[in-house]
Amino acid sequence: MTIEAVRTEGSTVRDRGGDADGGGHAPGARSAGVGRGRAEAGSSWLLCGGCRTMIYGRRFDRAGRVCADCGWHAPMTIDQRLDLLLDAGSRRDIEVTAIDGDPLEFVDSKPYPDRLRAARAATGLHDAAVAVRGTIDGNPAVVVVMDFRFLGGSLGAAVGEVFTRGAEVALRERTPLITVTASGGARMQEGAIALMQMAKTSQALGQLDEAGILTVSLITDPTFGGVAASFATLADVIIAEPGARLGFAGRRVIEQTIRQVLPDDFQTAEFLLTHGVVDIISPRAELRATLSRLLSVSSRREDGIPRQPARAGGAVVTDHEQLAARDPWESVRAARRLGRPTTLDYIGMIVEDFTELRGDRMSADCPAIVAGLGRLDGVPVVVIGTQKGHTADELRHRNFGLPTPAGYRKSARVMRLAAKLGLPVVTLIDTAGAYPGVEAEEQAQAVAIAENLRLMAGLAVPVVAVVTGEGGSGGALALAFADRVLMLANAVYSVISAEGCASILWKDPAAAPRAAAALRVDSRELLRLHIVDGVVVEPDGGADADPQRAAATLRVALRAALADLTPLDQMTLVTRRRARFRQFGVPETDAAHHRTDETDETDEASHSEEEGATR
């Protein structure tokens, strides 16, 4: 729906919105008009494209072109967008070779060159995108912005060159790349040349991935076709404005092709968030702060944790003899208490500048797993954890902390981002296990867990896992393949729940206490078996008795673990992690032999690297 400009004098109503006819092909896409009428006195009134109420133009501009009544986000020009995003005075345009061709000598109702001249006259732009350098709260970035007014923001050779040039500058200067999209699709008047821009731009993003440079895509309304199927959706983080639509085929095309009735919110940001495509929906007023957090965390500055190893003091017990023996069933009951801090509780108490990322980019966002970027005592980290809740409503919303395949795939996606950016990973685990429903099996739950295990085995960044409550089966292990595995004193960790074991082996669920003892699920026994490397002490009465104190102790334990691991090179990290899990189930003498072999191999590899560097 467009803004309709209403003159304050007379009855003329004008709609200066662009459309996709200029080259994009998203039939059914709403026009993204930005025009307005002005009275001779300079006043201006607009009709909101959302709620259809009258808006005073100057107030509307001061509000970032967002309707105060319904929250509708109006289209913005490139200059308006850059003024909104960048620090004042930081904009520096990037020079791009001007492309002004007509490769097909294309003519529809008018020759393609005539369309280009008309679009340039109307917008003051050479084409539908601009690339600039700038800063956001002092954080440098390269920003590529599209404008729908120019032939529907269609992707042709000029737009492809602007994006690729921006990506090349970001690569050379090792600066994050932010893209703001608004497009109806590939430019039809350039035929297969336009189609090739999808490959060209995707390749440029792949090079940024290889170089470990953060990419962020801001989806504005509308983003369709070739842009949606290339650089708009390949970024590390996808942010969308409220109500923005993103899709490959337009709504009208889908309805006419398959004769299917589509939901009202189809292809909107809200629809895509639920279906795992979008990470964040950010209103314009919050966008700069969101981008600033992401850019700051991705900078990898290590200004919090000291480079020399720091010890956790009394926060972590590493000798099982120092832990009092306790009834395993009491540990199970304590681990399940609803008052215990959840992953989100701990994040709120110990992680600064946290930005949650959502979705598996395939089908769904699993609320039972929380993942995102933040800072632990100033150090950038990725935090991933299972999430239960404290109330019945929270538990239902979070699926009782039972992750679906989408949850494990979301965690894998965020771990790969951590590896790309060189950020340590912290996982917090409190789950009875992976969700066992029919839908989970249809979506390959076993495969999702197995792929997480393989990924974590070779993750080239420090990984610290903490079992904060229940550590249930493979569903917990899928987040616990780590360099350092800790557990809270009242937590439990087991191959199966005590009730499940009792039902299978004793044929009686009431035998759960006996099963818990046999499985040795408590922290003291797991430390004795070296399943965990340390036990984080809890306040008297448990973590739920004093959550703030429990969180402070956990922070100290995590800080010490990361201080030990951060100085290690990638090969040492991965080799030691694999050796840690290699020895489980092997007699101690054989395990020691394997550890010696692994150490020798690591030393040889490190020596070879040093020799190569010397040469």
UniProtKB/TrEMBL annotation:
One of its GO terms (cellular component) is acetyl-CoA carboxylase complex. It comes from the Bacteria. It catalyses: N(6)-carboxybiotinyl-L-lysyl-[protein] + acetyl-CoA = N(6)-biotinyl-L-lysyl-[protein] + malonyl-CoA. Pathway: Lipid metabolism; malonyl-CoA biosynthesis; malonyl-CoA from acetyl-CoA: step 1/1. Residues 315-564 form the CoA carboxyltransferase C-terminal domain. Component of the acetyl coenzyme A carboxylase (ACC) complex. Biotin carboxylase (BC) catalyzes the carboxylation of biotin on its carrier protein (BCCP) and then the CO(2) group is transferred by the transcarboxylase to acetyl-CoA to form malonyl-CoA. This is Multifunctional fusion protein. It comes from Frankia canadensis.
